[in-house]
Design brief:
heterodimer; A: 476 residues; alpha/beta; Amidase signature (AS) enzymes; 11-stranded mixed sheet; two-stranded antiparallel ribbon; B: 61 residues; mainly alpha; 4 helices; elongated
């Protein structure tokens, strides 16, 4: 049994150690590789390891630190979801059809991380094209449970302490739900904030790329490196990037108004999750914020998940039409999604896009009254691998209908949202708070989440009651 | 409707196996009620769609 989750330093600690000369990038890379060796293949987070390349880059990073030419993430090890292209490194998109595929160019997010001095250590497991299934990746807190997805590998790897940083993608909750279940911080920035060039997706209009880390400040450091306009990505937006997201984490919450929605988000919710989220909000109030009840009745009329179930199949069927002649080569879940996409009528697809605008309008009206919303990152904790339903409020629901219940609305509206651990259920599984703010206000999102994290630490942080429980063999 | 849907997919994706087409149609049919509820929400002509490359205008930085 390992306690890697508690011993691997985060990004901020690594950078401080490198600067002080108490730690080297090579030390950090070796620690990551040791943690991966100790937890794989049981965890199932890693698809491709680039150990020798990482060691060579770590040695070069060490030289930069010694020469005084270190870049912002110099020597920080990271992993990428296997939907993100890496030149010369196998990138299979989680798909049997693309097993062994080796891209010839890096995705823009990989270029930015490398330019900031980061060190790619591993490509990480994903649902097929971020929308199929992945039965391989387990939850680091309980190997009989799922990590969630589609950023399964990135969230499990960070939750288990294999890596201090991973990059995932999120078209309906694919960063935030697995991050919540794996006890990690997961940030979905504003749509267009981070370039998606070179990353495959299941949806043009819902997909986002963002960081998964152990702490909110680490997420801020990562965002600084990957945010910014990419003229070669038609969905990238030239919005100003804040000068220092990490420094902004320390601002206090005096005068901050935090909305607590009356509808939807907690109408179906495990009691332990609701209690932990309510306690986290109370701690934000104790830190100076004002809790304000807000109403979003549109979410009772327009189920965000039902919209997603029109938009994603239609867009995925179009994105992947070149592969339809070999559709039988896809995995079952992704193939079914593509075939479903051919049944979405154009007026229904357009109606879904029009309804997004209504949701965005009503959210914008709420954000006139409050600075942020505080809701559960997920209404349930990590389910068992074979689980297909969940009982909430005395009624049994298909798991698929509740998994993204609190997350997909922010994909539809495009605004930023971050999940941060805020407690545990009685099985020791992580519970997360989700903070959402208006578009482009990632700094506010991170500052509020950081305050929640600090207050959580003062009452017993995510690592104090429970550690990830991984060892190198799969459970029988 | 089910048979029509299966023919529709089979015509557009001839490489798909019949059992997989039938399965996709069953899953799709299971979400009929969700789609009917969405169609029941009135939309005025001023309700524009959010289009893929609209982020600059849509989110107004």
């Amino acid at each position: 049994m390992t306690t890697a989750h508690r011993t691997l330093p985060g990004i901020g600690e690594l950078l401080a150690g490198y600067a002080a000369g108490t730690l080297t990038p090579r030390d950090a890379v070796e620690q990551c590789l040791a943690a991966i060796e100790a937890t794989e293949p049981a965890l199932g987070a890693v698809e491709t390891l680039v150990a020798e390349r990482a060691r060579a880059e770590a040695d070069a990073a060490g030289r930069r630190w010694r020469a005084g030419t270190a870049r912002p993430l110099e020597g920080v090890p990271y992993g990428l979801k296997d939907t993100i292209d890496t030149a010369g490194v196998p990138t299979g998109y989680g798909s049997p059809l693309y097993r062994g595929h080796v891209p010839t160019a890096d995705a823009q997010v990989q270029r930015r991380l490398a330019a900031a001095g980061g060190i790619l250590v591993a490509k990480l497991a994903t649902y097929e094209f971020e929308a199929g299934r992945n039965a391989r990746t387990r939850n680091p807190f309980d190997l009989s449970r799922t990590s969630g997805g589609s950023s399964s590998g990135p969230c499990a790897a960070v939750g288990a302490g294999q890596l201090p940083l991973a990059i995932g993608s999120d078209a309906g909750g694919s960063i935030r739900v697995p991050a919540a279940w794996c006890g990690a911080v997961g940030l979905k920035p504003t749509f267009g904030r981070v370039s998606r060039r070179g990353a495959v997706s299941c949806s043009w209009t819902l997909g986002h790329i963002g960081p998964i880390t152990r702490t909110v400040r680490d997420a801020a450091l990562a965002l600084q490196a990957i945010a910014g306009h990419d003229p070669a990505d038609p969905y990238s937006v030239g919005a100003p990037v804040d000068a220092d997201y990490a420094a902004g984490c320390d601002g206090d919450l005096t005068g901050v108004r935090i909305g607590v929605p009356e509808e939807w988000f907690e109408e179906l919710c495990e009691p332990a999750v609701a209690a932990a989220v309510a306690a986290a909000r109370d701690r934000l109030a104790a830190a100076g914020a004002t809790l304000v009840p807000v109403s979003l009745p549109i979410l009772r009329r327009i189920n965000p998940d039902a919209l997603k179930h029109l938009i994603v199949p239609a867009e995925a069927a179009s994105i992947h039409e070149a592969d339809l002649p070999r559709v039988e080569g896809f995995g079952d879940a992704f193939r079914a999604l593509l075939l479903e996409g051919h049944l979405v009528a154009a007026p229904d697809y357009l109606r879904a896009l029009r309804m997004r605008a209504l949701i965005q309008r009503d959210l914008a009206a709420v954000f006139e009254r409050v600075d942020a919303l505080a809701v559960p990152g997920s209404v349930i904790t990590a389910p068992l691998l074979e689980q297909e339903t969940v009982t909430l409020g005395g009624t049994e629901h298909p798991l698929a209908s509740v998994v993204a219940r609190t997350t997909s609305v922010f994909n539809l509206a495009g605004n930023p949202a971050v999940v941060v651990p805020c407690g545990h259920d009685d099985r020791g599984l992580p519970v997360s708070l989700q903070i959402a703010t208006p578009p482009w206000r990632e700094a506010d999102c991170l500052r509020i989440a950081h305050a929640a994290e600090r207050r959580q630490e003062s009452v017993g942080g995510i690592g104090s009651r429970t550690t990830s429980r991984c060892e190198g063999r799969a459970p029988s | 409707m089910t048979v029509h849907s299966e023919h529709w997919i089979a015509a557009r994706v001839p490489a798909a196996a019949a059992e997989h087409v039938a399965q996709a149609v069953r899953v799709w049919a299971g979400k009929d009620a969700d789609r009917a509820r969405l169609r029941g929400v009135p939309l005025g002509p001023a309700a524009d769609p959010v289009l893929p490359a609209d982020a600059d205008r849509w989110l107004r930085p």
